[in-house]
Amino acid sequence: MSTQLRADIVRALTAAGEQAKGAGSDTLTFVDDVMRLVDGALRFLEQDHSIWEARRAVLERLESTARLIDRGTTGPYDGRLQRAIGTARAHAVEAINDLQAQIIRYGRVNAAGDRVGLGKVGAAIQ
Q1: Is residue 46 part of a domain?
Q2: Residue 79 belongs to some domain of the structure
Q3: Are 36 and 101 in contact (CB under 8 A)?
Q4: Fewer CB within a 10 Å sphere, N or C end of the chain?
């Protein structure tokens, strides 16, 4: 059953990566929109240090990106800033991909996942 959970996680994190790239993203809610997708992917997983560290890295990258985007809306928007925003977005996507790898490697179904039929508590994500 945890195969369904894996598919849901991949789908949610793919959507988070698209948001981080800038697809349909409102700059005011950029971090919240992406983290809502990330946290939705984590809600049926047992807590694991590697996964939560990877989540923290995603949040840090998103916040850095948001600061650059905000600078672009309040000041001069030149080519260097545009490249910096593009690079920051790419780093955020890379962090999301790393989070997905950590989930696939260490993710285990939690009690909430068991209750909704996604697998037995402690079962590895397949």
Answers
A1: yes
A2: yes
A3: no
A4: C
